[in-house]
Each structure stands twice: as structure tokens, then as C-alpha cells.
Amino acid sequence: QVQLVESGGGLVQAGGSLRLSCAVSGGIFSIYTMGWYRQAPGKQRELVADITSSGTTNYADSVKGRFTISRDNAKNMVYLQMNSLKPGDTAGYYCRCSSVWGTHLSWGQGTQVTVSS
Fold this sequence. Notes:
Largest sheet: 7 strands, mixed
Structural class: mainly beta
Distance between the termini: 40 Å
Strand content: over 45%
């Protein structure tokens, strides 16, 4: 069973930066597609960015040029570097693991990011 634990959220002023981390245990991390999602109050959970086992990345239009997803297969970690944060980025951020075939495997418990204006 794959388990995900996020960390790194917090309160930051607009224009600031945060780095989220997701520690993965169980399974074979190197073959998984890893993603960061976010959910604001009253809104649906949405994809922020994901990264395949080969390192191909994909970003939501709203974060392109500001956020960077990366992974460290040796440490079973995935990261989300968030720069130039905006109040609209305020949400719970969740790490997700999917199989190479796109099958959902696990969600993390989430970490809160709050951006003040």
C-alpha cells in the first residue's frame, strides 16, 4: 500500500515562496506518476502539476511559470516549488500517486497553503 505524507505548507505573503514536499512509502516510487492537486473551500479539487516516471511535467495554466514540480527517485520524494504566490493560490494542497497506467493509487492527507494580500 502506497502512503503519502505532505509537508511544507504555511502562511505567506503575496509574492512569497513555499516549497511543498511529499514523502512516499510503499510500492515502487520510480515508476509512479506523481501529482500535486489543490482544493479551495467550496471548489473542486484541481490538478496543479504532475510529473511522470520519466520526468515529463504538466502544469495548470494558472501556475505555469511560477510553480515547479520535481522528484527525487533516490529519496522517494516529490516537491512543488511555488514562487510569486497569489491569494488565489490559497488552498489545501494534496499529493497524489498514480500507476504507470493512470490508475489512482493514493492521496496524501494534505497541507494548507494560505497566501495573504
